Amino acid sequence: MGLLTNKVALITGAGGGIGRGVARRFAREGAAVVIAEIDEKSGAEVALELESLGGRSLFVRTDVMEKASVLAAVDAAVRHFGGLDILINNAFVPTPNVRFEDKTDEMLEQTLTSTIKASWWAMQAAMPHMRNRGGGKIVNFYSIDTEIGAWLHADYNTAKAGILGLTRSAAAEWGRFNITVNAIAPTAMGATFHKLAAENPGFAERAAAMRPLGRCGDPEDDIGPVVVFLSSNLSRYVTGEAIHVDGGLHLPGYNSRPADVPVRET
After folding, report:
1. Catalytic residue (choose from 57, 119, 143, 235)
2. Which of 15, 57, 78, 246 lies 20 to 30 Å (CA to CA) from residue 260?
3. Longest CA pairwise span in the chain (Å)
4. Torsion (CA) 141, 15, 135, 124 in degrees, nearest 10
């Protein structure tokens, strides 16, 4: 018996990176996993991976920029598996890394929609189904970038701050339904990490050295277990929390100023 046996989980953005790692870990713990992913190829591939691990899975093409698509994913989970116990809001649509003064309204709207609005829509849609099952678990994705004011991520930092507010608001209000709502701030070797490592020799080594634990996180083996904890009965008395899952990176933080930006400009 796994920690998530007989539970139904929906994970947005599970077609790669941290989402895929969490999905694989959930399958190993016995959950039926709905892969809500926009990329049909990667989403279908992860569904097959979970089946090969002995899990139950369903791929639902989902565009988190569209409310109807998010609601349809929740409906598909309930129709296919009979209910919904766990919601993991991981997906977002990135914008170009440019300075705050160069960020556009369109970039801000894209980021706010794919993070705050998508999570809001999914949570409101999932709540009645969780309530009908006597409770549920929601895990949202926060970020260390918000805490350090990471350069070139002004829209992302703003949105993730909103995610923390959303998490705590839902935790306060939905505790009466036995629904816990928590957030994690993960860093791991996902798609972006591997891209940067391929383009910048020594990047992986430098990234590992920044963390007190001296290594970079694995999506399945380092991030996945913490999400499992927050999604299982082990965390039944934990709600409204934001947990860093970053090998201790939040302790020293990091300098994100681009090398070509002077200290003072006129």
Report:
1. 143
2. 246
3. 63
4. 70
- Looking at residue 266, its pLDDT comes to 83
Out of 142, 160, 232, 235, pick the active-site residue. Answer: 160
What are the residues facing 183 on neighbouring strands? Answer: 140, 242
Q: Which of 57, 103, 142, 156 is catalytic?
A: 156
3-state secondary structure the chain: CCCCCCCEEEEECCCCHHHHHHHHHHHHCCCEEEEEECCHHHHHHHHHHHHHCCCEEEEEECCCCCHHHHHHHHHHHHHHHCCCCEEEECCCCCCCCCCHHHCCHHHHHHHHHHHHHHHHHHHHHHHHHHHHCCCEEEEEECCHHHHHCCCCCHHHHHHHHHHHHHHHHHHHHHHHHCEEEEEEEECCCCHHHHHHHHHCCCHHHHHHHCCCCCCCCCHHHHHHHHHHHHHCHHHCCCCCCEEEECCCCCCCCCCCCCCCCCCCCC
Rounded CA-CA distance 86/6 in Å is 11
Looking at residue 19, its pLDDT comes to 97
State yes or no: is 143 an active-site residue: yes
Q: Is pTM beyond 0.85 here?
A: yes
Domains along the sequence of the chain with CATH? 8-189+219-245 (3.40.50.720)
Residue 80 has a pLDDT of 98
- What count of residues does the chain have? 266
Residues of the chain with pLDDT below 50 are none
Q: How far apart are alpha carbons 89 and 104 in whole angstroms? A: 25
CA terminus-to-terminus distance, the chain: 63
Angle between helical axes of 17-28 and 224-231 (0-180°, round to 10): 60
Is 156 known to be catalytic? yes
